[in-house]
Amino acid sequence: MEGRAPPPPSTTEDSLLTPEQIKRIELNRLKAKARQRQREQEAGASSTPNLNQKRPLEVIPAVSTSPTAPKPLKRDSRLGKYFEYDLSKMVNSKGGFLVEDGKEVDEDSRAKERERERQRAKQNLEPPMYLDPSLNPKCRECQSIDIDYIYKKIFGCLVCNKCKDEYPEKYGLLTKTECKEDYLLTDPELRDRELLPHLLKANPHKSTFANMMLFLRCQVEDFAWKKWGSPEALDAEWERRTEEKKKKKNKKFEEGLRDLRKRTREGIWQRRKDQEHRHVFGVMEDLGDGMGRQVCHESQAFTMDDPNQAESSKISTSLELEQIEVNLFRSKTLYKPTRARGVFGGQVISQAIVAATNCVDPAFGLHCYFLLSASPAIPIIYFVERLREGRSYTTRSVKAVQNGKVIFQLMCSYHKPEPWQPTHQWPMPEAPSLEECELEEVLFRRRATREDLPSKVRDIFLSYALERENGPISVRRAGLTIENGTQTSMHWLQARTGQAAHYKAPYQKCILAYLSDLNFDDFCCEDGLLYVVICPRAASGRAVVHGRLYSRAGNLVAVTCQEGVVRANVRGPTENKAKL
After folding, report:
1. Distance CA 334, CA 279 (A)
2. In the 8-state DSSP scheme, what is residue 205?
3. What is d(CA 506, CA 355) in angstroms, rounded to the nearest whole number?
4. DSSP per residue over 421-438, as a string?
5. Directed axis angle between helix 440-448 and helix 455-470, to 10°?
6. For 42-98, what is each residue's pLDDT tens digit?
7. Computed over its alpha carbons, how large is the radius of gyration of the chain?
């Protein structure tokens, strides 16, 4: 039907229809033909099979209203907002921006940019060749007019490409590093274009590095000869600097080697220290008679009173020694007080006296010196030296050794009692009886109950109370008096032996040495002693303390004198040293 032409309308009908009617008829005819063509296509697509006996797929347009038509994809909301630009309407402003046609462009900026481009292009152009050969620049070596215009422009050197390659010792390029190392030039000299012009090129190692500075060899050599005087002087200076660098390098190597040796020695010492036996003690075994024992799990040969080196509750345990040789003894228990640097000094003194007493008839006075602090984890060896044997006086020297170092030295002077000699003593001051005074552990516990007390101070009070409660010596404060500007403190001290009748005078003096330095008459430490302490002077961080110990009967049984370091929490003025 599409191939047949419609019959021509008669002239009679044409004369009866208006132009508008004719136009409408033609439009209707075209619409009818389009609908008919669409029906034929739909019928053919659904019914006519293809070569594979399959119905062909039909494409549904995006604007179709069919319910089976695919819906358009929605934009992902996670992409955020964006602006759509029509790149076909954009123009290049040559300023790094894309400007739409409708927007104004700064014509002055465009003109300046074009002028800069023209100047750059002009600089990169090679100069023209003249027809007159005498006007053209010539190579300084071969008089050729084929010169390298980059060399002429940067270095002012007329040389052709052929001669540049044939004479690299004159026209080769040097880097800044080569100029500094080989010709001993400095950075300010190399940066000065008037002294040494240079060519900038991109760094071949990495694009982000700074540009390379390339210098002409003949110009660098001429400047270096002027600076150092001659090539020989330059070589001498180069050798001198090389020798200095070698010395500095060797010195640095020696320092590093010494440091390595030092750290190696420290490491070996630390490894040996770590390999030392560390005692791990078990549960306390009660041996009776106030004695107890704890055995190390790792070494059955060593015993200790407490795994934390706590003070024994029995004085006999604190004074116990093991005799190794005739004049050689070893401690069995050591005690470190709370917040102390080392072993309790009174225990070292008393154990030293026990060692000395085992070598002589006991009745003595003594002087002693502490040299180093001692560790409670390692036994102390006591070496007794028999200095003098007399009829009335005998002298013994005791050295306490730990880790191969003398930590304490004691000098004892033993004296046979002479009761027929006259007696004189300072009277015992008035003081409350032992039973009327409060134990220090009770006092510390009561102070720890205060609500306004800081937690750190409370812990210190409780640790002191526990230490006093478990210690071999009970302490009671008897009073504090001030007379003529002199402060005197009094304490009742009582040994917790448990069996006072079994300990004779020599052992009682060793117990007293747990507290003091000198003693005279017979007494019993378990019965209680009044300790009167006076400090005559304290200055420059040192103090001297005198003490007197009285029995309950008022007898002065011991006199002590001790000098030690006593510093307040005050720092001295800082010294301003001039810095030259």
Report:
1. 13
2. S
3. 12
4. S----PPPPP---TTTSP
5. 160
6. 765 555 666 666 665 555 565 666 666 667 677 677 766 666 666 666 666 656 665
7. 55
